[in-house]
Amino acid sequence: MRHESAPLTRHLRVLRERGHTVLEFRGEIDIAAAEEIVPHLDAATAGPDPRVVIDLSRIEFFDCSGLRLLYRARHRVADRHGRLHLVCAHPLTLRMLRITGLSRLLPPRPTLEAALEAAQEQPEATSDPV
Question: Start and end of every STAS domain (predicted)?
């Protein structure tokens, strides 16, 4: 069951899905979009043990500002002993993730369902954060 916890904005929708906060990035993720997204990202990654999925399936453009958002989320979640999962199937964005090495730190899943299943399959006591 999905529960929308923040209003749909031009570049972001925030949902709750299976105990995870899903940040669904939308459209062109550039410096202007990043400024809009940061407060929501920070709210989703605040507190102990955050469970977050960043969904890039609805993006049309993704630059270094988007990469900074992913690194920011990863750092904040790791500091709080939480978990972060990524949804991405766009070939150019996947290439950027591979080139920067981010795909090794945050392996992308092709769909939100696959990311949520991966999150459920991780053992609680033995998993690395993020």
Answer: 10-119
Burial 106-117 (b: 16+ CB within 10 A, else e): bebbeebeebbe
Contacts of 12 (CB under 8 A, 6+ apart): 6, 23, 24, 25, 26, 33, 36, 37, 40
Model confidence band, residue 66 (pLDDT cutoffs 50, 70, 90)? very high
pLDDT in tens, 82-112: 999 999 999 999 999 999 999 999 999 999 9
CA distance 73 to 44: 9
**pLDDT confidence of residue 78:** 96
The superfamily (CATH) of domain 3-121 is STAS domain (3.30.750.24)
Where are the chain's structural domains? 3-121
Q: Characterize the bridge pairing of strands 51-62 and 3-6.
A: unpaired
Q: Tell me, yes or no, if the pTM score tops 0.70.
A: yes
